[in-house]
Amino acid sequence: MCPGKVVPNNTHFDTTRANVEFTGAEAVDLPIPEGREPRSRHPFKGNVDLGALERLLAERAADVPVVLVTVTNNSGGGQPVSLENLRGVRALCDRFGVPLFLDACRFAENAWFIRMREPGQADRPVPEIVREMASLADGMTMSAKKDPLANIGGWLAMRDGDLAERCRNLLILTEGFPTYGGLAGRDLEAIAQGLRECVDEHYLRYRVRSVEYLAEALLAAGVPIVEPPGGHAVYLDARALLPHVPPLAYPGQSLAVALYLAGGIRSCEIGTVMFGRRPDGTEEPAAMDLVRLAIPRRVYTQSHIDYVIEVVTAVAERAAELPGYRIVEQPPQLRHFTARFEPLA
Fold this sequence. Notes:
Layout: E1 6-9, H1 14-22, E2 26-29, H2 50-60, E3 67-70, H3 83-96, E4 100-103, H4 107-117, H5 126-135, E5 139-143, E6 154-158, H6 161-174, H7 185-197, H8 201-220, E7 233-237, H9 238-241, H10 251-263, E8 268-270, H11 272-275, E9 290-294, H12 302-317, E10 325-329, E11 340-343
Parallel strand pairs: 1-2, 3-4, 4-5
Antiparallel strand pairs: 5-6, 7-9, 8-9, 10-11
C-alpha cells in the first residue's frame, strides 16, 4: 500500500485503519445503511454495501490492492456478515480482479450468527460454515486473542504461495522463524486448542446468550444500545443517551469515564475519539458514538453481569448531568490509546 491506494472494508477497526493510513493509503468504510442505525434490527448489519463496493471498484479497481471484510464488524457494534453477502463480495472481487481478505478475529461468532439467522443454514455445523467463509477469501488476518481464546498471538494466512514465502522471509528478518518467532511454544499450542474449542456449539450458545442477557436488561431499563446485540459485547449508544453532548465533545468518552468512576466498569469508546480524526489532522464526528462493554470469555458469572447492569442503569439515570470532554494531549495515530482528557466546564 502507498499514497493513492484505497482499501474498502465493511468497517475498518482502529488498528487496521491506522496501518492503512500510515502508508498514505485511504481506508474506506462501506457498511450497509442499516449498519449505521443503532435501532435497526437487521440480522446482518455487518454486511458490505455491495452497490457501493461495485461503484468503487468500477471507478478505481487499479487503486485497490485488497478488499477487506471484518467478521464480525467490531467497529459497527459486533455485527455479523452473512454468507450471502460474503459470496457477493467474492463475486465482485473476481469480476474486478482484486483479492479478498478477511479480518477474521471473531469468525466463530460470525459463523454462529449465520447458523442462527441466515435462511438455509440452521442445520449446518459451525466448523462447516467457518470453512465456507474461509473458502471465499484469498487470505485472512487474525488476532488469536479474540475467538481462539488465546492470551497472545495471531496469524496471517493466504492462498498465494509466493506471497506467503515473501511474508515468511520478512518475518524471519523482523521477528524470527515462524515456529518460534514472537510466540512461545505453549502459546502456539494454546491457539491450536482455542481453535478447537471456539467452534463448539455449546460454548457459542453460552457466549452469545451471556451478551443477550446484558442487552435485554439494559433495553428493559431504557438504556439505548446497538440492536440486535453482537456476539462479544453490548454497545451503548452514547450519542442517544447524552444528546446534550455534541459529538466533538465526545459523548462516548464521557459515558466511559462515568461508568469507571461509578463502578469500576472498564469500557471502550468507539466513536469520535477513536475515528473522528482525519489523516490531515482535521476532525469530524464519527458515524456513531458508542461505548463497548466487551465480556471476557469464561470469566463472568451472572452476578458479575447483574452488577454491570446496576452500574450502567444508575449512570444512565443521571446522564443529563454528564459533561463533555476535550483532549489536552494526543499522539498522531491511534490517539484513543494514550490521549488525555479534561471535562468541559
